[in-house]
Amino acid sequence: SSCCPSVPPVPLPSTTVTAPSTTRTSTTTTTGSTTTVSPFCSSGKAANNLVVFANYEGGALTINVDQNIPNIYIGVMAYKAMQITVMGNFANNVRRVFVSGRNSGAAGCTGGPNITSVTPSNLGTIIAYPSSVPVVNTGIGTGNMVCAYSCSLASWQGGCNTGDEVAGFFASQAMAAGGFAQSALSLYLYQTTYYCWSPTTFSLSGGASCCPSVPTLATPTTSTTTTTTTT
What we know:
mainly beta, six-stranded mixed β-sheet, four-stranded parallel β-sheet
């Protein structure tokens, strides 16, 4: 060898092991105009918690509520028909399921539903093709609540909505239904894909595909009047 530097004394590594945190925190990564957060968008400790699922093709989605977080409001959006089922050990924590989109014909997969429904039906509120303008319109998504399939917040969505439009819309519905201010609501997770739920079971413990920001919303004074409850 060309030289032999001396090795200074090095202390032994600590044998203390720090236990992993049980708090559901999130790690944020921003690439260009897309922000991804894994595994959860918030701790689930808010007084009210919002969970959002969105795609283009619709389909049969079973939501397994396996996380004991309080006062869960679920928003589901697709262009085509959806069959939404809520189940799980903590399904009683779900206060409302809002289903919205274009509702344009049968789901885009073999054996998919022809009409949109929610089970249990007493949880479901179907909002057909509402305008997004009174809530949030970024100018990138469309002017109605139609569908969503990506985590991009700054690129044209081909006639669908951006994630912040979708999160803002469902947050406004939850606030109106529950009669609380935005400060009492947190986005817990946002799951999105283009493809059909054919059928798909998603557990809340599965985490978020991304976490769009929820725009500032006006505090509701009365319950929403634009919804139709499923039968």
